[in-house]
Amino acid sequence: MAGTQTLGIIKPDAVASGKAGRIVAHLEGAGYTVRAMRMSRLSLREAQAFYAVHRERPFYDSLCAFMTSGPCIPMVLERADAVRQLREVIGATDPAEAAAGTVRQLYAESKERNAIHASDSDDNAVREIGFFFSEAERTGLWG
Ligand code: CMP
To answer: Which pTM does this prediction carry?
Structure first.
């Protein structure tokens, strides 16, 4: 069965331009519960490690520089079929190709500065949630 949690990151472009609140509201409107969330300025090493799967791509250095250019907002997002549904809600990587009403069509600037990241598989969701959040945070069993 598909998992009920995925990782979303509101990227530095959307945080800097004051769109974070609208994006969170959009995700909640799409049925997601925000299980954990924080504002974080990634170090270059963290960005390189998070996006290591893309390290041979021509856009890797630029992507890592962008992701460290200002604060971002990682979130654990919860609902049934979390990974697949979130990718529908955020739309295509390139906002010019994203369907009407998706987060990237509404809020992204470009293929790189595309407002939000979402895990692309259940396995990656587990890895990416673990990159940012403890088990206690992920489950809400803290305090
Ligand atoms: P994300 O979903 O975070 O996964 C990898 C990121 O790399 C992607 O969103 C974009 O920000 C960026 N990216 C992917 N393809 C390109 C590209 N062709 N040019 C620039 N950036 C890209």
So the answer is: 0.97
